Amino acid sequence: MAHQAGGRRPVSRSVPEGCEARAYLDDYAAVVEAAPFPSFVVDHRWDVVAANDAFAALFAQVRQHPTAMPGDNFLRFVLFHPDAGRVLGEHEPAWCLPMLAQLKTALEGYCHDHGLQAIRRDVARDPIMEAAYRQGLPHWMRAVGESAARLDGAVRLLHHPDPRRGTAECRVVDETPPLLRDLGHRRLTMIPRQPSAARRAHLTVVRTPQT
Questions:
Q1: How far lies 206's CA from each of 47, 199, 201, in Å?
Q2: Which of 112, 146, 157, 180 has its CA 20 to 30 A from that of 204?
């Protein structure tokens, strides 16, 4: 699973060789690598540019797949890998529909991109997924609103292969700095949610002073 290793990877082919942007992306991979939570950078077609060790650990037990490994293209992984639901909780409503919405948005911005068009063709080859894209997605968007398709701030379930972590909610946080966004890339981090201090305090017995 060479592409599943965390840390630095070759940056996107969409960035010209030898330019300052390529050097920036290469150096930014070190920032991603240092994050304690699963964190990764994708380009406009969701090719994974950089991913850290926590990301690799989250998907450590995913079986090999010729086109849909999480460390290669995260969009393809969510939509097409048979093991995606083993890691991504509530897979169809919480991950597939939002990622189909992400595909639709990407195609609107990069309609002639061969990589995105290939993903769209693979969606069309699956009758259930094609129906979800053409009929289910517009209905879902009308029902829940466009904000539901955003990943930034979304709370999702993760099934971590480490039994000490198990199943837990995470919040997806978009940590994309301006220069990275200008290059057509984005960084997403999955931060495990802990029980809030307020909820813990609510369960604490409050004793009145004895007089």
A1: 52, 14, 9
A2: 157
The residue behind tokens 């599943």 is 4
* 57-77 mean pLDDT: 97
For 143, residues 6+ apart whose C-beta sits below 8 A from its C-beta are none
pLDDT for residue 205: 44
Among 76, 87, 88, 86, smallest CA distance to 126 is for 76
Q: Is the pLDDT of residue 197 over 70?
A: no
Provide the residue ranges of all domains of the chain, joining segments of one domain with +. 2-194
Q: H-type helices in 44-172, by residue range?
A: 53-58, 74-80, 84-87, 97-109, 114-125, 127-131, 137-144
Taking residues 53-58, report their average pLDDT.
97
Tokens of 209: 């002073």
Q: Mean pLDDT across the stretch 150-169? A: 93
Nearest to 85 by CA among 72, 103, 99, 66: 99
φ, ψ of residue 203 to 5 degrees: the values are -90, 0
Pick the CATH number of 2-194 from 3.40.50, 1.10.1060, 3.30.450, 3.90.550: 3.30.450
* Residue given tokens 């998907």 in the structure block: 59
pTM attached to this predicted model? 0.84
